[in-house]
């Protein structure tokens, strides 16, 4: 008798925790999530971003890229911020796609510290990244959107997961489309978000194969404007044999308006001045060339799509409700 009662209780508590889990995963992000529990959260992030970006416009690029790199690997859970721990496999942050090129960590840490002083244990690092990317988008491009929030922070970050989820710069349009499709994002969203490459920089190592070692028949990538290639060669000397390329020198991704988040990127592609293979391929592939031309002609339309796609990207595989945690320090799990 006692036995069956125990079973009944166990079954009941099992069902109860299942329904808790189900409701936790059904919680969705919402605009104004911190309005009651930490009303100044979004203002604090905006101030921190504005201060830094006014001094160093490139930081806006860094923060927008950080959001992409967070959301595509394990969802938008701030896994990109976790430091590698001794005795564990390296974290995302130390993958070559992030280290040393990903920037803006200290902006997130500063905003987090100011928020913790006011509302401890309330605002996730994942939401701070999302707010900072929005504020950067506004500062660099005058493009504004509301950010649905309520993300929670993950406790796991694994370097090996980066390459399975983030596209490398040598991918062609078909491969890029596949990478985004695996996240439930459309080809048009991929082309639209690539417009983020209208700001910021790339290291020579990300494209010098296009200048010196393209393939067996062409040293230089024939899809690259020869004058632009000649300029790039002055910035990026040939890497010594066996080396992966210059990891310190950078070149603007958009030569014309490098600090302005705008649709000039797409006109540059038309003139064969896309810096990365993954940029130029969007113009050269039948899958995407019409989208490039359309975005190049319609700046306001592109900006609206960019805002929508940023919001969509921010919803990928998020932790909500009672999942994950609110990290106290963004670089370490609690
Ligand atoms: C479509 C596939 C993409 C590929 C293959 C790609 C690849 C890259 C690479 C290789 C760099 C230069 C890294 C370096 O050498 O320092 C870069 C920079 C950048 N990416 Fe992407 N990216 C892609 C999509 C995106 C998306 C979706 C966003 C955000 C919406 C984004 C935002 C940026 C920004 C802003 C920079 C400049 C960063 C800085 O100046 O610190 N990228 N990307
Ligand atoms: C894109 O890359 C894949 C994998 O390398 C290749 O199979 C495909 O043919 C390429 N597509 C185009 C259009 O070049
Ligand atoms: C090298 O690239 C060019 C231009 O994309 C292409 O036409 C050619 O077939 C490629 N050669 C080899 C050997 O892959």
UniProtKB/TrEMBL annotation:
Cystine crosslinks: 38-119, 71-76, 125-330, 204-236
Binding site for heme b: 197
Residue stretches making up the Plant heme peroxidase family profile domain: 28-334
Signal peptide: 1-26
Cofactor binding notes: Binds 1 heme b (iron(II)-protoporphyrin IX) group per subunit.
Keyword entries, A-Z: Calcium, Disulfide bond, Glycoprotein, Heme, Hydrogen peroxide, Iron, Metal-binding, Oxidoreductase, Peroxidase, Secreted, Signal
Catalytic site positions: 69 (proton acceptor)
Subcellular location: Secreted
Entry EC no(s): 1.11.1.7
Reactions catalysed: 2 a phenolic donor + H2O2 = 2 a phenolic radical donor + 2 H2O
PROSITE patterns documented for this protein: PEROXIDASE_1, PEROXIDASE_2, PEROXIDASE_4
Binding of Ca(2+) 1, residues: 70, 73, 75, 77, 79, 92
Single Gene Ontology MF annotation: lactoperoxidase activity
Required cofactor(s): heme b; Ca(2+)
InterPro entries referenced in this protein's UniProt entry, alphabetically: Haem_peroxidase, Haem_peroxidase_sf, Peroxidase_pln, Peroxidases_AS, Peroxidases_heam-ligand_BS, Secretory_peroxidase
Site positions (Transition state stabilizer): 65
Keyword DNA repair: no
Broad class of where this protein is predominantly found: secreted
UniProt-annotated binding residues for substrate: 167
Function: Removal of H(2)O(2), oxidation of toxic reductants, biosynthesis and degradation of lignin, suberization, auxin catabolism, response to environmental stresses such as wounding, pathogen attack and oxidative stress. These functions might be dependent on each isozyme/isoform in each plant tissue.
Family, per entry: Belongs to the peroxidase family. Classical plant (class III) peroxidase subfamily.
The protein's name in its UniProt record: Peroxidase
Organism: Hibiscus trionum (Flower of an hour)
